[in-house]
Amino acid sequence: MSGIISVCSINALEQAAANLRSGGLVAFPTETVYGLGADASNEVAVKRMYNVKNRPANHPVIVHIARIDDVTYWAEEIPDYAISLIRDYWPGPMTLLFQRTKNAGDFITGGQDVVGIRIPAHPLAENLLAEFRKIGGMGIAAPSANRYGAVSPTDANAVSQELLEFLAAKDQIIDGGPCAIGIESTIIDCTKENPIILRPGAITSEMIEASTGIVLAPDKLENIRVPGSTKQHYSPKAKVLVSKSANPGEGFIALDDIETPTNAIRLISPRTIEEYARQLYSALRQADERQVDSVSIVPPNGDGLAMAIRDRITRASEN
């Protein structure tokens, strides 16, 4: 195992790109969470990535691309509102679902006729994708770099703790520091007349409406499988409770203006919604490191990013 790459020179990224093209796996940072990447055109590599994650074969992955004009390699039937979203929010924490082309195999779409695509807004991810593109790579399939259903990693050490024992000698982890946003991308279904949010994230409904001029309909059940959509997800070993109270010795997560219950273990005290998103997953990992039995969380109020945080907390609390 070549381990964590902490000096991310162009030469190191060229080697990582070549590794991906030869069937290796590379964990890399994005602005949302760390992803475990495989060449999206290499079925053998993608299936090994699924095995490393213990991910069900019918659960799709997102294809990360280097350039906007590469969308049409993977997808077709791009509506005008999607073009507006791409113009306004790529690179960024937004995944768009389109009808797939023949280049998007069942092994990345989970057997569905749609494919999820995004361009991440992280300099190392963007440079890795650019180097990968130079040597013929059209996209990197990259779910979060953790075992399926567990807490997504927001730094390289968390990736190592989660996956090191499952990776091969040639696989790599690129250290780009902590992730700026800390929760996964917004997923938007662009296969319908109007956009539909399938997973909330940092690109909010208000931002989508501002870009497209379309007022979004209330959420409704969509028969499309997307990453992070299972009822239980993002779960630590500790039991997660949505509660303002906590017993002595239990973990506690809330905004800093909420008092810590007597003898509870305060894990984080974010001052803003953005800090809450950025720190949530590391706090859940910290709970497991401190071997607490349970964590009580007070979700933030509000729309936008707060709603995305509540989604992650709700799914984590199903454990």
From TrEMBL:
EC number: 2.7.7.87
Catalytic activity annotation: L-threonine + hydrogencarbonate + ATP = L-threonylcarbamoyladenylate + diphosphate + H2O
Cross-referenced NCBIfam families: L-threonylcarbamoyladenylate synthase (TIGR00057)
Subcellular locations according to the entry: Cytoplasm
Gene Ontology CC annotations of this record: cytoplasm
Gene Ontology annotations of biological process type: regulation of translational fidelity; tRNA processing
PROSITE patterns (alphabetical): YRDC (PS51163)
Similarity field: Belongs to the SUA5 family.
YrdC-like domain ranges (all copies): 10-203
Signal peptide range: none
Example of a GO MF term: tRNA binding
Name this protein carries in UniProt: Threonylcarbamoyl-AMP synthase
Gene3D superfamilies, alphabetized: DHBP synthase, Threonylcarbamoyl-AMP synthase, C-terminal domain
The keyword ATP-binding belongs to this UniProt entry's keyword annotation: yes
Keyword set, alphabetical order: ATP-binding, Cytoplasm, Nucleotide-binding, Nucleotidyltransferase, Transferase, tRNA processing
